[in-house]
Amino acid sequence: MTKPHAHVVVLWTLTVASCLMLAQQNAPNTQGVTPPPGSPTPTPARMTFFVTSVGLGKGGDLGGLAGADAHCQALAAAVGAGGHTWHAYLSTQARPGEPAVNARDRIGTGPWFNWSFAQLGAPQNAIISADLAELHGDTLVQAQRGSNLFKQSTRNEHGQVIHGIGDTPPIQHEILTGSKWDGRAYMDNADHTCNNWTSSSTGSAQVGHSDRIGNGSSWNSSNATKGCSQAALESSGGAGFFYCFAIN
Amino acid sequence: MSERSRVTQDLAHLHGDTMELAHLGNNLNKLTGLTEKGQIVPGLYDYSDPRDNDWNYAKTTRFSTRHEMLTGTQTDGTAFTDGVDHTCDNWTSNKSPAPGTSNGNLNAADGRPNAQIGFPDRNGGGSGSWNSAHGTRGCAQTDLPKIHGIGLYYCFAIN
C-alpha cells in the first residue's frame, strides 16, 4: 500500500501474464482477469481462497501439513495477501499416537473469496462459499446444488483458471485433498494422503477436480492418484496443486 | 462409447438421490452436455461479449453465452410446490415482469414471471447446479438472454 503507481505496474504485469496464459486455452476467457475501467483499486488482502499456481514439485511429498501450509503462505505473500493465515485444504490419516486431521477443520469458517474479489471488488463468482456446510454439501439439497466452487471461480493466486478437461495440455485439474467428500480424513488403512504428505514414491492420494469434470463432479473427492511421484500425479491430469484457504 | 460420453447411469445418479451420489455428482458437464449436433453450449466466460445479453444479437450467432437450461425443477428433479412461478406458467407464458417490479433478484416471487434454470457447464449461479441454480428475469424471449440463457433445455430419450 504505497504509491498508486506500484499498483498499476503490478496489476499490468499480472494482467499481461494472465492474458498470455489464458490465450492458450481453447475458450477465450478474459473476464475476471482484466479489470474494467473504473474498477476499484485491487486489494489482494480480500482474497481468502486460491489454488496453488505451482506445486512443490516432489509429487505427494509436501513436507507434511506444515510444508503445505508454508507453501500457501508464501504464494499468498508474493501477491500481497500474506496478511492472512493460510492453510492447505488437506487431511492426514491417523497414526500411532497421532490422530487424523480433517481438511474441513483446518480452514476457518468462511466466507471465502477468490482472486476476482480482490481485483474487482464484488463481481459474479467471486465468493467461493459462504460457510463449511455449503462448501461440503452437508445437507442433501446443499450437496445436490453444489457450492460456488467451479472452474471459473476456482482460480490460482494470480487469477488464472486451472487447466481442466478440454483445455490445452497439460491438464492440471486434479487437486490434492486426501479427503472424503465431507472434507474429513479416511479412517481405513489404505493410503489416501501419500503417507500424510511425505511420500514422493509409493502410496496414493485422493484428489478432487477444480473444474468439477471427471469421475463425477466433486471438487474435493473424485478419485485416487496412481502413485505419489510427480510423474504419477501428472499422468492422470494433476500437478501436485492444492487448495489454500485463509482461516482469518 | 468413451467414458466421457456417458452423462449419467440412472435417475439416482443424475439427481444425486443419496448423500454419496450427490457429492460424487453426475457426469453432465460442458463436454457431455452437448446439443443434438454435438456442439458445446457456450458457457460462462467463453465469449465475454456484452451483446450476449441482447436477444437481437444472440439470435444471430451460436457463439453467445447461453448456458441456462430451462428446467422448472428443484435440485432433486421434482416440481416446486411453493405456489409461485418457476415454470413460466407451465411453459405457456412469455410475459415480462410488470414495469418497476423487477428487483434484479433471480429468485422467484409472487406474481413474477419466472423459470428455474441449470447449467450444463456447471459454471455460474452460485452453485453450478445442472438443473436448479436460479430463476430468470422474466419469461419473454428478450428476458432470457439478460442472464445468459436463450430458452434451451435438456432432451432425454425415454426408451
Q: What does this molecule look like?
A:
The complex is a heterodimer of chains A (about 250) and B (about 160). With about 250 residues, chain A is an alpha+beta fold. Helices cover about 25% and strands about 10% of the residues of chain A. In chain A, strands 1, 2, 5, 6, 7 and 8 form a six-stranded mixed sheet that branches. The longest helix of chain A has 20 residues. With about 160 residues, chain B is mostly loops. Chain B has a three-stranded mixed sheet, with no helix packed on it. Chain B is globular. The model of chain B has no long low-confidence stretch (mean pLDDT about 90). At the A-B interface, helix 5 of A face helix 2 of B.
Quickly list its features.
heterodimer, A: 248 residues, alpha+beta, Mannose-Binding Protein A, Chain A, 6-stranded mixed beta sheet, two-stranded antiparallel sheet, disordered N terminus, B: 159 residues, little secondary structure, 3-stranded mixed beta sheet, 4 helices, globular
Indicate the multimeric state.
heterodimer
How many domains make up the 3D coordinates of chain A? 1
Q: At the fourth CATH level, what is the homologous superfamily of chain A? A: Mannose-Binding Protein A, subunit A
Given the structure, what is the number of helices of chain B?
4
Stated plainly, the CATH topology of chain A is called: Mannose-Binding Protein A, Chain A
Which strands sit side by side, in order, in the main sheet of chain B?
A: 2-1-3
Tell me the radius of gyration of chain A.
Answer: 17 Å
Characterize the overall form of chain B: globular
**Class from secondary-structure proportions of chain A:** alpha+beta
Pairing-aware structural class of the strands and helices of chain B?
Answer: little secondary structure
DSSP helix fraction of chain B: 10-25%
Cα-atom radius of gyration of chain B: 16 Å
How are helices and strands ordered from N to C of chain B? Answer: HHHEHEE
Number of discrete domains of chain B: 1
CATH architecture of chain A: Roll
